[in-house]
Design a protein that fits this description.
This protein has 248 residues and is of the alpha/beta class. It has two domains: 192 residues, 2-enoyl-CoA Hydratase, Chain A, domain 1, CATH 3.90.226; 49 residues, no CATH class. Helices cover 47% and strands 16% of the residues. It is built from eleven helices and nine strands. A six-stranded mixed β-sheet has the order 1-2-3-4-6-9, sandwiched between helices. The chain has a three-stranded mixed β-sheet with strand order 5-7-8. Strand 2, helix 1 and strand 3 form a beta-alpha-beta unit. Helix 1 packs parallel to helix 3 and helix 5 packs across helix 6.
Length: 248
Amino acid sequence: MTLVLREDTDGIAVLTLNRPEQLNAMNPALFVELRAHVDAIAANTDGVGCVILTGAGKSFSAGNDLRAIAARDRPPSRHFQALTVEALEALPQPTICAVRGNCFTGALELMLGCDMLIASDTARFCDTHGKFGMVPSWGLTQRLPRRVGLLKAKEISFTGRIIPGDEAMRIGLANACVPDAEFDAYVMDFARGIVANSWHSARGNKLLYQKSQQMDLAAGLVYERESGPGVAPDMAERIANFSRKQKV
């Protein structure tokens, strides 16, 4: 059984976690397949302009597969899962995590490796590390406060309470919360809006945003004006096309 599906349409690569009977609980084999897709997409900036990460069935993912942990099912290397989340985060293309149903613990950490989040109104986010005597090791304590602020991140981790989709949007965890009946269409339209713009600009903007997280304001301003990727090769053509449309 293929654990991570990939489907490409008009420059949009959709990666789907594919263990719906187990609510897409993530075992090491799933991460191996996910990493292979991420690495292939990273090398294909001419063919892929945006990535959607989602889950098959009614749930994005229930999190790390506890049965695999109990069975001592091991990944290829000690920090393979954490490094896969980092590889996802480092993709040059903009990434969208599309979440319906559960997004718990390890799945929450995986989701935070994406640039943006679209939540269904069925979505439920939760950090359950504390319920099982665990602590994060895939980046949760670093990425979650950068997304929602330190105060709210501590609340999410210390209480282990469920955050519904509408609250996720209010606290800045999600870009949007959409009725489930409209969810799939909304996510694809969102991605199409990204690939309709310059892919060069999207990659350049993502690079600048990523670098700024590692710098203070002064250093970030210098990096943007002196080390950014510059204009796209087709900038003049895009301006000319825009001007022609304005005259019509």
